[in-house]
């Protein structure tokens, strides 16, 4: 089955003017502002970062689509073509970790390095019962979004931060798209398309993330990518870009700079 609509060149922001091109893809709860706390600290002479808004988010909030990781992968390749980037590295947070793997599966020859941050495996994230109900209700219930953010960061952060994260999520995502995205990133299994890849890959997790843990990464990402390594950030949960931005910049740039 083909795409419901043609590939889209998504709206995007460019930061830096370096020769190494990096596409940074946000997760389920945010638009491209997911990386805002990192941006003051990146090496703008070495890297050019492009931060797109996926369909249903940010400037693409009202853009129709299937809201799937495979569709997003095609959109990001359309963006790379628009930018005239023949080769580039990929950075994906959470749901964005699944999206960037779709790019790799579709065009492995174009990807230099890949970094997943608290990333969804290519096998999806199976959930049942109350856990699934919590995530499925998050499209329409702000309190569910707040509970998920609090849970996945270890219940450690101030109420004001949780409120800010929820407010940004509500203001910068479309509820119907948000719900549709869940079915794609949580339920789809395409790991056979990346299994055995020789691409250099780094997986970054937060020690306080109870869901996408180092052990989960060892059973998924590190099993399928022959040249993968794992970095665990001791002070982070599921949102290292917000919780420990300096540590995340080091983990990302030290890795991709070696290519």
Helices, strands, pairings?
Elements: E1 12-15, E2 20-25, E3 47-52, H1 69-83, E4 88-93, H2 95-106, E5 111-117, H3 129-137, H4 142-152, H5 159-171, H6 175-187, E6 201-206, H7 214-219, H8 221-224, E7 228-233, H9 240-243, H10 245-256
Helix pairs in contact: 1-2, 4-5
Brief summary of the model shown:
The chain is built from ten helices and seven strands.
Task: Give a written overview of the molecule.
The chain is an alpha/beta fold and 259 residues long. It has one domain (12-256): Alpha/Beta hydrolase fold, catalytic domain (Rossmann fold, 3-Layer(aba) Sandwich). 38% of the residues lie in helices and 16% in strands. It is built from ten helices and seven strands. It has helices at residues 69-83, 95-106, 129-137, 142-152, 159-171, 175-187, 214-219, 221-224, 240-243, 245-256; strands at 12-15, 20-25, 47-52, 88-93, 111-117, 201-206, 228-233. Strands 1-3-2-4-5-6-7 form a seven-stranded mixed beta sheet, with helices on both faces. Helix 2 (95-106) links the parallel strand 4 and strand 5 (111-117). Helix 1 crosses helix 2 (95-106) and helix 4 (142-152) packs across helix 5 (159-171). It is globular and about 40 Å long. The N and C termini lie far apart (36 Å). The model has no long low-confidence stretch (mean pLDDT 96). GO terms for molecular function: hydrolase activity.
């Amino acid at each position: 089955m083909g795409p419901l609509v043609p590939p889209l060149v998504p709206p995007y922001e460019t930061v830096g003017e370096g020769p190494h091109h990096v596409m940074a893809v946000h997760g389920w709860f945010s638009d491209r502002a997911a990386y805002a706390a990192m941006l003051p600290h990146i090496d703008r002479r070495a890297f050019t970062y492009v931060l797109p808004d996926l369909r249903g988010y940010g400037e693409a909030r009202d853009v129709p689509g299937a809201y799937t990781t495979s569709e997003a992968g095609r959109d990001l390749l359309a963006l790379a073509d628009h930018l005239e980037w023949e080769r580039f590295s990929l950075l994906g947070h959470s749901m964005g970790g699944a999206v960037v793997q779709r790019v790799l599966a579709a065009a492995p020859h174009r990807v230099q390095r890949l970094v997943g941050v608290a990333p969804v495996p290519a096998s999806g994230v199976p959930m049942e019962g109350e856990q699934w109900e919590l995530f499925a209700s998050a499209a329409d219930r702000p309190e569910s979004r707040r509970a998920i953010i609090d849970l996945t960061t270890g219940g450690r952060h101030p109420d004001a931060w949780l409120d800010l994260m929820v407010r940004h999520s509500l203001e910068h995502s479309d509820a119907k798209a948000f719900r549709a995205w869940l079915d794609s990133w949580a339920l789809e299994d395409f790991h056979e398309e990346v299994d055995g890849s020789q691409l250099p890959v780094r997986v970054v997790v937060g020690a306080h993330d109870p869901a996408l843990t180092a052990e989960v990464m060892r059973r998924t990402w590190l099993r399928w990518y022959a040249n993968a390594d794992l970095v665990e950030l001791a002070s982070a949960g599921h949102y290292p870009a917000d919780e420990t931005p300096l540590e995340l910049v080091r983990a990302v740039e030290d890795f991709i700079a070696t290519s």
